[in-house]
Write a structure and sequence with these properties.
alpha+beta; 3-stranded antiparallel beta sheet; 3 helices; globular
Length: 82
Amino acid sequence: MSIHKITVNKLSSEALRGVIEEFISRDGTDYGEKEVSTETNYSYVKSKLQKGLAVLVFDDEAETTNILLADDPILKKLEILT
């Protein structure tokens, strides 16, 4: 398995901002009926990452980065496999 957790403090602030902005701009990341600014979404996701409530993961094979909630069942399966 080629999926790795990345600690937030391992990234420069510019790299972290880029990862978060790419994540929040994806299709399917709508946060509800009320439209929220990109900066508000960015702050929300960054806070989750800093508090350990969300995790950055990198897939070597697909060369993609994703953000998962720390209690996501998919993440738990990955931990078992690695």
